[in-house]
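Today's session is about reading a structure prediction critically. Students often jump straight to the picture, but the first step is always the sequence itself: look for stretches that repeat, for charged clusters, for runs of hydrophobic residues. Only then move on to the predicted structure, which in these notes is written as discrete structure tokens rather than atom positions. Here is the chain we will use throughout the hour.
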Amino acid sequence: MLTNLDIVKYAGNTPLGILSLLAVIVAVLYTTASDTLDAPKLKLGSFEDRMLYGRVVTSFANASYIEGSCQTPITKTIDAGHRAESCIEIQYSGQANLGYCGGEWYKSIDLHHRPLPIAMLYDNTTVQGSWISTNQSMTEVSQKYGRIVNNVTMAMPHSGVFDASQLPQNGIFQPQDFSGLGQFFLGTSVTSPAVNVLCVSMSKTEIAPLIYEIWPGAETYPFNSSSWPLDYDLPRAPDWVNSTVVDDIFEFGEKYSRQPPIFPKYPIEYNTILNTTVEYVDALYVLAASSSDQYMLCSLSVSMTPNCSTWYNSSISGGVIWSHCNDPSDPLAYSKSHRNATTGFREKDWVAAAFYWGVTVDFNGGVSDSDDSTARLLTQLMPTSDSLDPALPSIAEALAIMAGPTLLTGSMDSPFVDFFNYTTEDDVFNHPVFQQFPATLAYQDYASGGNQAWQGVFYIVLAFAFLLNLLCLGYFIWYGDLVNDFTEPQNLFALAVNSPRS
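Below is the predicted structure for this chain, in token form.
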């Protein structure tokens, strides 16, 4: 056509010529248009809003339920007293250091641009947490109190969403239902557990009011790790322990109705000690030492945050579940579906459940000067200035990530709301109850259609192909005769064979 432009010029002025030129253009572009629009390819469908059901068996971080549900080959006949405790400690020990050891810490001191917390769920699902921003930076808070204050909050997705996606009553097609080639994306408006880690630098003199071995009379009953703290006469409510210079930071004392921790001794360099003395506490306390006069007191507390949503992506090779937080435009944020949601209420049950985790990672090894490797690594992450290190995690970030598995375990079979409005023995049901929560769901499966908006122009090619074929069909129906196409190879060959010699 391009080599015979003169013919095209004359043919283009006739109806038959115009149709012929149009047929040529359609024939050239038809294969491309067909592959682009008709050939099936993996494509994400539109999100559909719906209500889902989730299974609830117990309250959040119920220590007795967590122990009882841990899978172990040891029967009650073999070890009735410690089988469950040993099982959960082994489970925590395998997960504790996953999220920050070996991670790449980017050149940033902005918490929003720090690497996301990572954990694992059921060994085949990657968990991504979120850093929740505070109103003040580390530098501002440290300058306010005249000492290094390392304060971070990390949220984890609600692990019950994973189980909810498998429930038959929710009718969610699984990847294996699509011959292993499809996947789905699920967004849910549920509450999310969040751990706050507050670490404050203190000198040896400043931490002294909380160290038993230097109290008056301690020489009469010297510290013994095998009998601490049960055999010691320690202050308990309504009596209050010595005040410290950090009471207003940690909210210790009668003013805040919170007892401070008591530690049996100073940890030696690169060791940590876990608080085991305070009853009915709402936080876990760890004392870390990097040198003979450099200490950090850290508190870990957990609450449910309404400022997140939980998302889950499932495919045949595994899945990813993550929390999406601090996004005012997120329509699935729990606060959008529950306007009166509470925030900042500390979950005391988590402290009892997390104590096993603290023992497992040997936070209390400092009572016997164990020089544990985990404690050494943590103390080397203690900040030396009033800002985050752009190349290393801080001790608060590391503790938050290490505590991540306790949030996942605690939210299994727990409510999808920020309260437990049931009355049952030990906060455990004999049979599961089901809660509804808002969600949005989209499938990725083989489907026709373009992946890009500009590919819609190919619909014009397919439309003209259809119209031209329809025109040809009408022609044959109207005239009723068929015409041999002598340009086809088989017809051309037969014509050549039967033609006389020239």
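Discussion point for the tutorial: The chain has 14 helices and 14 strands.
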